[in-house]
Each structure stands twice: as C-alpha cells, then as structure tokens.
Write a structure and sequence with these properties.
Layout lengths: L3 H10 L5 H14 L9 H9 L1 H6 L5 H18 L13 H6 L14 H5 L2 H4 L5 E3 L4 H12 L4 E8 L4 E6 L7 H11 L7 E4 L4 E7 L2 E7 L5 H9 L1 E3 L2
Parallel strand pairs: 1-7
Antiparallel strand pairs: 2-3, 2-6, 4-5, 5-6
Helix pairs in contact: 1-2, 1-5, 3-5
Protein name: Roadblock/LAMTOR2 domain-containing protein
InterPro entries: Roadblock/LAMTOR2_dom
C-alpha cells in the first residue's frame, strides 16, 4: 500500500498529466533511486522531484514549466513535512563561486524531448495500454470516442500510413486540416518517430503511427499537450 508522501505527489502530478502517466513517471523515477511507493519518505521524495522526475517530466512538458510544476509540489511537500526542505533553489549561492570546481547543476541533466517523449522505454511501457482493432470500423470508432473525451479536443482522425483519412469526428474547421494531417503522416515513413506534434497557431495536431495506420488529434489552445501526448503513448493497434 502506498504511503502518504507518494499519494500527495502522484495526485498533484495527475493534475498535469493523466493518472496513468503520473503513476508511470513517478514509479520509474523512484525505481531509479532504489525507492518504492510504499517506503519513500519526504526527504527522499524531495530528491526524486528535483532529480529523476524533473528529467522525465521535461520530456513531456517544456523544461521551464516542468520545473515550475515540480517546484510547487516540492514546496507543498515542505509545508507538510518541514524537516524535508525543498531542493529547488532559484540561483546558486554566492559561496559556490568561491569554492571553484564544477558548479553545473547536477539535478538537471540536459536531455532533448526525443529521449523521453519518443524513445524512453520505461515511459512508453505504461501499465494500462489500450489496444484497438484499427482494421475494423468499430475499432476505429472506439479509438475516436476515447480520445475525443479529452476537454478541448476538436477532432480525431484515423488514417492509413499513407495519410488517407478513413474515419473522423471533427468540429467545423478541424476537417480542413486533412491535407496537413496527410502530409504529416508521410513524415512518419521517413523518420523513426513514435509521436509528432505540429503547431498550427490556434490548433495543434498530435499524431501517432500505429503500424499500417495513424491516429491524429486536433487540439485547441486550452488542451494540455503534454497530457495528450501521454495519452497517445498508451494507444496500440490490436495484433
């Protein structure tokens, strides 16, 4: 059974990404430190927040936002557990300059989004994968309905790998993006990507290849793109 420290952080994290993604990210970060959801204490969680979890969340969200969100969680943890102060410091202390040596931040590895968003094996191996029979109309419709439940999603399209749209549910205006989606789908044939997003200004198109098929989601400006990408990570085509 998970303890109060773990529950506090995973609930806060699920407000940023999906519940499944929050569990996956946090459990993977704990394993990296040799910790468990049942035994982690507040001081250990502070190290996880400023280290491995920050690195992982920066692969889903912009790094500045990931840091801000985790710093807020760290401060909340400190309020409840005063003996476990936050490790997020806005600037190095002046004394560091006098000490000499390597003063680089050790808790912020510089990774690109590709390291986590597309290729991180622990992140993509979420415990609750969803499989859809995309060679059938019912399977395509089930996928569209599931992704369409996210607030702010304006359209969902199931395509062939060639970009041909097979089935769609979209608000007026989102259907006009079919040509953009078709062109983006072709890029998957040339690059080894598991996800792709295209910023269209007031809309963002997020796409994921699924074997001979591809799913595209048209998201409005109010959608949490990090959470949407995390949801797409869980989608699989049925064997």
């Amino acid at each position: 059974m998970t303890n109060a420290v773990y529950t506090l952080i995973v609930r806060a994290l699920s407000g940023i990404v999906s519940e499944r993604a929050a569990e996956t990210l946090l459990r993977a970060a704990l394993r990296e430190q040799g910790l468990t959801p049942e035994g982690v204490n507040a001081a250990e969680m502070q190290r996880v927040l400023s280290g491995p979890l920050l690195a992982r969340l920066s692969g889903v969200l912009p790094q500045a936002r990931a840091r801000a969100e985790l710093r807020a969680m760290s401060m909340q943890l400190q309020q409840q557990y005063p003996k476990a102060p936050t490790l997020f410091i806005t600037a190095p202390l002046a004394a560091w300059d006098e000490a000499g040596g390597d003063t680089r931040w050790q808790d912020e590895p510089q990774f690109s989004a590709d390291d986590f968003e597309f290729d991180d094996p622990e992140y993509t191996a979420a415990p609750a994968l969803r499989h859809y029979a995309l060679d059938s109309a019912s399977g395509q419709e089930a996928l569209i309905q599931d992704l369409g439940r996210m607030q702010g999603v304006q359209g969902v399209m199931v395509c062939r790998a060639s970009g041909e749209v097979l089935r769609q549910r979209a608000l007026a205006g989102a259907t006009n993006l079919s040509s953009v989606i078709a062109a983006t789908a072709l890029l998957f044939q040339k690059r080894s990507l598991n996800l792709m997003s295209v910023d269209m200004g007031t809309q963002t198109i997020c796409m994921r290849p699924l074997g001979a098929y591809c799913v595209a989601v048209v998201a409005g400006p109010q959608v949490n793109i990090g959470r949407l990408l995390a949801e797409l990570q869980q989608v699989r085509g049925a064997a």
